[in-house]
Write a structure and sequence with these properties.
The protein is an alpha+beta fold. The chain contains six helices and 22 strands. 30% of the residues lie in helices and 34% in strands. It starts with a helix and ends with a helix. It holds the Pfam family BSH_YknX.
Length: 412
């Protein structure tokens, strides 16, 4: 009898529980006017933060001289006498390289004078061109502030023109210095020929390191390379599509605990060899910072080309950003409510996403459990037990504890 009564009671309780749950579900389902309070429960959350994002392309390169120059000897003008430099020697403009004996004095003088006149004419032409470029004033861009939505094309064009002007000036100044050095060399040869007769000393028109001396007098007679270095390498077909000149490059060298910064100086548009059965490789050079010490030609470098970047960007971890038709996030607002908010993103590097629109630094994002999140509802979070440890309470100021106890007693 007792067992039947117990089973009967259990059945009643079970039916009551089912009815209770069903009724609550129906109340929530048919609650059109939001008379039943709903909350969002957030157990795990994270904060939007500021971060520097860099998209990198890794490759390798080798240090090499930025320029190679050669010096020739024409045996029709005389008989070679001797070298005045050796391989490995460092020479400057005007340093003696070799001597030769003139076979036709009058002809040699006439040739040198003709060369001097030609160089003087070229120098005058370059100087006139430089003066014209420097005097040219680029028209200032006209900005139209009446239509804010109208795209302004003048400023970029102005900047590009100004950059092109400075680039031309630098190129012509370099060419001018080279012509002046050649003129000085010819004038020195003329002076030597007039003072010493048949024997001519040829001076270097370049500065650099002698890398090769042709003892059999074959051309070129002397090869020199500049002491300034750059980095050379090759891009694959896929890499070539991602890079552009002037992109920032970070590079390191073995056994040197330092990262240097340079820029992509040039990228070839044509591979050295094009073959159906062979992958194409596109040579490039990197202009170095010039801060490297004890680096010699031939040293290898690890390169990271910065193909894209977002500095001081508003960022969030990718696991709190959700995808349906568009990216969105559950934002915990200052008013204590959950907000379903669409966002726009940019770079994504190693689980960190640049948020271009929709979030500000310091906003809190709900992460888990997502099936408990509801738009426009008040959110609740679990108590952080670490903040309620007895040891922390006992470590509090005794005067503060005493005041709180008295306030509690008076409140009763």
């Amino acid at each position: 009898m007792k067992k039947r009564k117990k089973k009967y009671i259990q059945r009643i309780i079970g039916v009551a529980v089912i009815v209770f749950v069903t009724m609550n579900g129906l109340l929530i389902f048919f609650d059109q006017d939001s008379k039943v309070d709903r909350n969002s429960y957030v157990k795990e959350w994270t904060e939007a933060f500021t971060f520097d994002l860099y998209e990198r392309l890794h490759t390798n390169g080798v240090f090499a001289s930025t320029e190679s120059n050669v010096v020739y000897f024409d045996d029709d003008i005389g008989a070679f006498q001797q070298f005045l430099v050796e391989e490995g020697a460092t020479v400057n403009e005007g340093d003696p390289l070799y001597t030769y004996e003139v076979t036709n004095y009058e002809k040699e003088v006439a040739d040198l004078e003709a060369q001097a006149e030609r160089y003087e004419s070229e120098i005058t032409a370059i100087q006139s061109y430089l003066t014209e470029i420097e005097r040219f004033r680029i028209p200032s861009p006209i900005l139209n502030f009446d239509d804010e939505d109208e795209e302004q094309n003048d400023p970029p064009s102005y900047v590009e023109t100004e950059f092109s002007q400075q680039e031309q000036i630098a190129e012509k100044e370099m060419e001018l210095a080279q012509k002046e050095a050649m003129l000085e060399m010819v004038e020195t040869q003329l002076t030597t020929l007039e003072e010493e007769g048949q024997l001519i000393t040829v001076e270097s028109p370049y500065s650099g390191v002698v890398t090769e001396v042709s003892q059999d007098l074959s051309s070129p007679l002397i090869t020199m390379k500049t002491t300034t270095l750059h980095i050379e390498g090759e891009f694959s077909e896929a890499e070539r599509k991602e890079v552009e000149p002037d992109m920032e490059v970070e590079y390191t060298v073995d056994d040197i605990d330092q990262t240097f910064t340079g820029a992509l100086d040039s990228i070839r548009d044509f591979p050295d060899q094009a073959s159906v059965n062979q992958a194409s490789h596109y040579p490039f050079t990197v202009a170095t910072s010039g801060e490297e010490d004890k680096i010699l030609p031939g040293y290898h470098a690890d390169l990271d080309v910065i193909t894209d970047k977002a500095e001081n960007a508003t960022a969030a971890f990718d696991d709190v950003l959700l995808t349906e038709d568009n990216l969105f996030a559950w934002v915990m607002t200052d008013t204590g409510e959950m907000e379903y908010r669409a966002i726009e993103t940019g770079l994504e590097i190693d689980g960190i996403v640049e948020v271009q629109n929709g979030l500000t630094v310091g906003e809190w994002l709900a992460d888990y459990p997502r099936d408990e999140f509801r738009d426009g509802t008040v959110f609740i979070t679990p108590i952080q037990q670490d903040d309620l440890l007895l040891e922390k309470l006992l470590d509090s100021n005794k005067v503060v504890i005493k005041n709180h106890l008295l306030l509690g007693l008076l409140g009763r």
